[in-house]
Design a protein that fits this description.
A hairpin with a 4-residue loop joins strand 4 (46-52) and strand 5. This protein has 3 helices and 6 strands; from the N terminus they run αββββββαα. It is an alpha+beta fold. The strands form 2 sheets. A 4-stranded antiparallel beta sheet has the order 3-4-5-6, with no helix packed on it. It has helices at 2-14, 74-82, 86-93; strands at residues 21-23, 29-31, 36-39, 46-52, 57-62, 65-70.
C-alpha cells in the first residue's frame, strides 16, 4: 500500500502541469492560465465564469459553449457574480447581440 502511494506521488511529481484551454464560440483557443475561474451552480444560464483582471477579459460558459468578452471591468464581473439573477444581469449588461457590440473582441 505504501509502495503504491509512493509510486503514485512520483508519477504526479513527474507529470508536467498543463494549463486548461477552451475554444470560444468565436473559434479562438484561449489559455485559462491567467484567468480566475468559478463554476456556477446557482444559475440556469451560466455554468462557468472565468476572468482575467489584468486584461479585462471575461469568458462565460453558457449552454455548453464558451464566449469571450473583452474590456469588461472588474466591477462589472463582481456585480455579475453578486446579482440575484446572474442570467438576467448577464443578458442585460454583457451578452453581445451582434458583432461590434459592447465587449466585442476585435
Amino acid at each position: 500500500m505504501v509502495r503504491t502511494l509512493i509510486l503514485l506521488l512520483a508519477q504526479l511529481a513527474s507529470t508536467p502541469i498543463v494549463s486548461e484551454a477552451v475554444e470560444t464560440g468565436e473559434h479562438r483557443l484561449v489559455d485559462l492560465q491567467t484567468f480566475e475561474c468559478r463554476d456556477i451552480t446557482r444559475s440556469t444560464v451560466l455554468q462557468r465564469v472565468c476572468y482575467d483582471r489584468a486584461q479585462q477579459d471575461l469568458i462565460v460558459a453558457s449552454n455548453g459553449a464558451y464566449h469571450l468578452y473583452c474590456g469588461v471591468t472588474a466591477d462589472t464581473v463582481e456585480r455579475l457574480l453578486g446579482a440575484p439573477s446572474m442570467g438576467q444581469f448577464f443578458n442585460r449588461n454583457i451578452r453581445r447581440e451582434m458583432a461590434g457590440s459592447r465587449y466585442d473582441c476585435t
